[in-house]
Amino acid sequence: MLFTQGKINWKYILVVLILAVVAGGGILFWIKTQEIPVIEFPEIKKPEKVVEDETANWKIHRNNEYRFEAKYPDGWEWKEQKHEEVTEIVFEKKESRFLCVVHFLRVIPKLPFEELIAGQKNAIQKRFKIEINEKVIVVDKILAIKLSYFIPGELVSPYSGEGQQIHRIFIPLTGNETFQIGYYADEKENEECESIFNQMLSTFRFLE
Description:
Distance between the termini: 111 Å
CATH class: Alpha Beta
Low-confidence stretches: none
Strand content: 35-45%
CATH topology: Protein Transport Mog1p, Chain A
Structural class: alpha+beta
Shape: elongated
Mean pLDDT: 82
Number of strands: 12
Oligomer: single chain
Helix content: 25-40%
């Protein structure tokens, strides 16, 4: 009883409070156990971008005389240019107002390979007095030397004022032979030409 003989029954109140706390704790525990667990969904990864082979539908030039093969894009053509001692295989863009030429040739130099490279660099620097970037690259699993340089317009032609970007690759072969691959392009055409040159180079291989 809450009141006993006109006095407050504190024992009764204490018992009620204890029961209330116990009951409240039980209810809270029941609510906690009934919570719906959060469902974790697996991370959905974006599909990797498929890199298309832009050279897949290019034409193939196969040269049995110089024993090499390379692809070239539609809208380009190739021809032979005979010099005193060698024949140069030249690829260029049809009906282009700008210069963009990729060339291949096989020569037998009179100097060892290292001296040949040094001689080429000296000749370029002596004539144009420009900086040359030299880099070792791999072409068809063979270590090669790549010389890159830019000739300012006033040194190319006093009339056009158009500079030229040039890359020349020298590949040492057996029998004291050197295979050369390169390109030269007008400054305005250089970005596209260099991209095509690198793609052609990626398809280049020597024939067995």
